[in-house]
Amino acid sequence: MAQRYARALYDLASEQGNLSDVLGEVKALRAAITESDDLRKFLADARMDIRQGRTVSNVLMSKLGFGDVLRRFVGVIADNRRLPDLASILDGVLALDSALRGEVVAEVRSAQPLTDTQRSQLQARLAEAGYSRVSMTERTDAALLGGMTVRIGSTLFDTSIAGRLTRLQNAMKGAA
Description:
By secondary structure, this protein is α+β, with helices and mostly antiparallel strands. Helix content is 61%, strand content 13%. It is built from eight helices and four strands. Strands 2-1-3-4 form a four-stranded mixed beta sheet. Strand 3 and strand 4 (155-158) form a beta hairpin. The N and C termini lie far apart (45 Å). The relative contact order is 0.12.
């Protein structure tokens, strides 16, 4: 379902000729959701009624300075009680844009936020592996204990400590 909403926003922005502006706003809103615990809790609150969700989302969109297209779109999402899916919808818009430009999306989960050096080294390694046009989405996950996982499509590269411990545990079970 998130893909349908993502496609609708992408097509609407494209038809109106302001796709690059809307994509910039989508990235900014996605970053705001990632960075704000309060915003994530607000979006995930299933007890919120439609009117309340619409009002708060309108205030939020205006306060963050987003344009009319994204503001109305988030209003429709609120009206349809899909605010808990907003982050997935925004990810879908960005993934759709990347796919149409011939890029692959790498979902990077790391125990600590990546430094600029680590980010550029990862880009270089992915280019060596044949992924020359890569767009990365980054998330921090303390459960990895250290290292990172990189998912490109259905391929998972796991260099995390948690992954290594799991593989070691499975190997020990097989040897017993």
